[in-house]
Amino acid sequence: MEITRKGTPHKLRGIQTKVGDKAPEFNIKNLVDETVGLNEFSGKVVLISVIPDIDTRVCALQAKEFNKIASELEGVQLITISNNTKEEQAEWCAGKDISMEMLHDSELSFGNAYGLVMEDLDRLARSVFVVNPRGEITYQEIVPEMSSEPDYDKAIKAARAAR
């Protein structure tokens, strides 16, 4: 699969997940260096927001929008994943009221498991996943143009429907 970044095509490494797949397990660290895995949220709806770089305009917009939505989504665990370092994420979060779990995938283990690594940039592709309580992907959007925002409304609707 290819996505574009300002019109330039970039190939995604590996095989992308699809709706109906069992969500691949991952174990990556949060801002307090605890390892967090998908299995910790077994029995819950999980909305995973993936951003390439928290320090860019569109990524910051996506993180802020989902953070705002998180407080309105009862029974849904929101996770934001980027391949920034812990320090970059912590600096971005400083002074913001962040209620979502921020995970850093600087080693790209999550990205490789989900087929989201842009081969030539070693960056995650902007995407959103909804995983139901049984661990199945019920919604997926890999944004075709990296500089575009995801469809928040569709993701929220899917998260509500996944309960």
Record the SSE blueprint.
Layout: E1 2-5, E2 8-13, E3 27-30, E4 35-37, E5 45-51, H1 57-70, E6 76-82, H2 86-93, E7 101-104, H3 109-114, E8 117-118, E9 123-124, E10 127-131, E11 137-142, H4 152-161
Parallel strand pairs: 5-6, 6-7
Antiparallel strand pairs: 1-2, 2-8, 3-4, 3-7, 5-10, 8-9, 10-11
Key structural traits:
163 residues, 4 helices, globular, 23% helix, Glutaredoxin, alpha+beta
Description:
The structure is a single chain. A hairpin with a 4-residue loop joins strand 8 and strand 9 (123-124). The protein has helices at 57-70, 86-93, 109-114, 152-161; strands at residues 2-5, 8-13, 27-30, 35-37, 45-51, 76-82, 101-104, 117-118, 123-124, 127-131, 137-142. Strands 4-3-7-6-5-10-11 form a seven-stranded mixed beta sheet, with helices on one face. Strands 1-2-8-9 form a four-stranded antiparallel beta sheet. The model has no long low-confidence stretch (mean pLDDT 94). With 163 residues, the protein is an alpha+beta fold. It has one domain (2-161): Glutaredoxin, CATH 3.40.30. It is built from four helices and eleven strands; from the N terminus they run E-E-E-E-E-H-E-H-E-H-E-E-E-E-H.
CATH topology heading: Glutaredoxin
**Would you state the CATH class?**
Alpha Beta
What's the β-strand tally? 11
What is the second-level CATH architecture?
A: 3-Layer(aba) Sandwich
The main sheet orders its strands as 4-3-7-6-5-10-11
The CATH superfamily appears as Glutaredoxin
The percentage helix is 10-25%
Rg (CA only): 14 Å
Given as residue ranges, the uncertain stretches (5+ residues, pLDDT < 50) are: none
Please tell me what the overall shape is: globular
Reading the helices and strands in chain order gives EEEEEHEHEHEEEEH
Task: Label the structural class.
Answer: alpha+beta
How many domains is the backbone divided into? 1
Strand content: 25-35%
Q: Compute the average pLDDT.
A: 94
| Ends apart, CA distance between termini | 30 Å
For the biggest sheet, the summary is: 7 strands, mixed
Per DSSP, the total helix count is: 4
InterPro entries: AhpC/TSA, Thioredoxin-like_sf, Thioredoxin_domain, TPX, Tpx_Peroxidase_subfamily
Protein name: Thiol peroxidase (Atypical 2-Cys peroxiredoxin)
Domain Thioredoxin: 17-161
GO molecular function, one term: thioredoxin peroxidase activity
